[in-house]
Design a protein that fits this description.
alpha+beta, Helix Hairpins, 5 domains, five-stranded antiparallel sheet, three-stranded antiparallel sheet, 16 helices, 69% helix, elongated
């Protein structure tokens, strides 16, 4: 069916070309300038005849010969499209120079009408031939298939480019090509989606072969496949970018595919980052702003005032919302950490501000699509450069979720002991007991042991006191028990522990372990230590200390 359609279109083109050639020879007044048009028509006729010959041979051929003739036929059709455009452009040039080209003008219109249909048919034929490589191919076979596929993509892009050029010239002749343009956009969209799928699969293959090479570094075939896969990703990304340029010329949305192309080149190697898309988006934005400035006039001033008002109102709404949410969270019964409350308030405030700014930008005619795409690209690059900061952010999220400590807790984390004075998703500020301020990255805290001293409501005070071997043990136990019981800040439950713990080298040691509220820890520790010393002195109980005997010998007496 495709061959018949092409043959019919070529036949129509041939007939009109012959008619035009006959008429052109009868026009002598136009002189030598019109002979160029006659020569071009002659080339078109010869091209048509060559296409018919190859087409007849391709229909009768089989196997490899048929494939070779069909490939030759594709090139011949593309050549015919180029010759037709050359003739039409020459007609326009002669017309601008003042020559009488009415007859050639009609011929050019007929060629353009058939041109769009031929370009569409050729593009569909080429598109149907582009397929994914088969599985289990060797590196050499995969490279060969890849080369063939890229050749088809080049031919397909050439057909799209010639089609776009034909549409532009058709408008010059006031030919209605709205239907043909919509069909072309549909075909290009399908081709872009197809290339995006090929690119994503190529990225997966490259990732798989990279893992294989990491696991078995000496596997030469895996290394070769990895190289071929990387080249395929790079080349497919280039082909996708070339198609995106055509889509931009047709006014089509390309933001999704642009992100994919950048992601593809960025995942393979860092020196493949292409900033052309970012530059293009910024250029479009600046041109749009300049155009609005030159032509908008009073309307632009009004929009700028509206921009300022919207941003001002958004800031006021953000502040008001922040106060309302802060009050609601304080009065609610939700057990939220201080960090979580601050983060919720900050996110809500910033979201309102960002939405207000975007609404304000849209009011002055700035397209948010390219701007958001550019911000996405910049965010990707910044995220890649700030990996350590993102690691701290992830650790901050884990601390936020599991809540091992909160603001005001006394902790020992990251090798630092002190009171938590401030927390963020990136770092934690600790005020040490000697009043030093220390900032610790969250990934160092989360990746180490965290000791929260004040997490529990009560704590046990661990103390040890020694007496002489000659002192009365029951009496000592009674005295220690009286000291613990008489202190107003010690707790009856849990019951305090007073036990003879060990027989040391120079003392008999007792452990004394009362329970207290966490805020009373050091007061009880210091009070009991002082009371024990004073009571032992009153009761005649000695607290031994290490002693050393020194013997001095006279050398002469020895």
């Amino acid at each position: 069916m495709i061959f018949k359609a092409i043959k019919t279109l070529i036949f129509i083109t041939t007939i009109t070309s012959i008619v035009s050639l006959t008429f052109s020879t009868s026009i002598v007044a136009n002189g030598q300038s019109l002979e160029v048009l006659d020569q071009l028509l002659g080339k078109i006729e010869r091209k048509n005849k060559a296409i018919r010959d190859v087409e007849d041979r391709a229909i009768e051929a089989e196997g490899i010969l048929k494939e070779a003739l069909e490939a030759r036929l594709d090139k011949a059709w593309l050549g015919l499209l180029e010759e037709n455009l050359t003739f039409v452009e020459s007609v326009i040039e002669q017309e601008k120079s003042g020559a009488n080209v009415d007859m050639y003008r009609n011929q050019a219109i007929e060629i353009l009408k058939s041109q769009n249909k031929i370009a569409d048919t050729i593009a569909k034929r080429l598109f149907s031939q582009i397929k994914l490589p088969e599985a289990d191919l060797s590196a050499v076979d995969l490279a060969a298939v890849q080369t063939e596929m890229l050749g088809l993509l080049d031919s397909l892009d050439l057909s799209y480019g010639l089609h776009i050029q034909s549409l532009v010239i058709s408008r010059h002749f006031k030919v209605d090509v709205a239907e043909e343009e919509n069909l072309l956009k549909k075909n290009i969209t399908e081709s872009a989606a197809n290339r995006a799928i090929f690119l994503e699969m190529a990225m997966q293959d490259a990732k798989a072969f990279s893992a294989s090479v990491s696991a078995v570094p000496d596997d030469k075939e895996s290394k070769a496949m990895l190289t071929v896969s990387k080249n395929r990703v790079r080349e497919l990304a280039d082909k996708l970018n070339e198609l995106l340029v055509m889509m931009d010329d047709l006014g089509m949305d390309t933001s999704d595919y642009q992100s994919l192309a950048i992601s593809a080149t960025g995942q393979i190697t860092t020196d493949l980052f292409d900033f052309g898309v970012v530059v293009k988006l910024l250029k479009e934005w600046s041109q749009s702003l300049l155009h609005a400035t030159l032509e908008g006039g009073p309307d632009l001033i009004f929009k700028l005032l509206l921009l300022i008002i919207i941003i001002y109102v958004s800031f006021k709404i953000a502040i008001l919302t922040q106060r309302v949410i802060e009050k609601a969270l304080m009065e609610s019964h939700l057990q939220l950490s201080e960090l979580l409350r601050r983060m919720v308030i900050s996110i809500v405030r910033n979201v309102i501000i960002v939405v207000g700014v975007l609404i304000a930008l849209s009011q002055i005619g700035i397209s948010l699509g390219p701007l958001l795409a550019g911000l996405g690209v910049v965010g990707f690059i910044i995220g890649f450069a700030l990996q350590d900061t993102l690691s701290n952010f992830a650790a901050g999220m884990m601390i936020l979720i599991y809540r091992p400590f909160d603001v005001g807790d006394l902790i020992d984390a990251g090798g630092i002991s002190g009171k938590v004075s401030h927390m963020s998703l990136v770092n934690t500020t600790i005020l040490t007991l000697d009043n030093q301020t220390i900032l610790i990255p969250n990934n160092k805290i989360w990746g180490d042991v965290i000791k929260n001293v004040t997490a529990q409501t009560i704590r046990r005070v661990d103390m040890m006191f020694g007496i002489s071997y000659s002192d009365d043990i029951p009496k000592t136990e009674r005295i220690l028990q009286e000291i613990i019981d008489s202190h107003e800040k010690t707790l009856a439950e849990p019951e305090p522990t007073i036990r003879l713990h060990e027989l040391a080298d120079s003392s008999v040691n007792f452990v004394v372990r009362p329970w207290v509220n966490k805020d009373d820890y050091w007061d009880v520790y210091w009070d009991i230590t002082r009371s024990v010393k004073m009571r032992f002195d009153e009761e005649g109980i000695s607290i031994p200390f290490p002693q050393r005997d020194v013997h001095v010998y006279n050398q002469s007496s020895l």
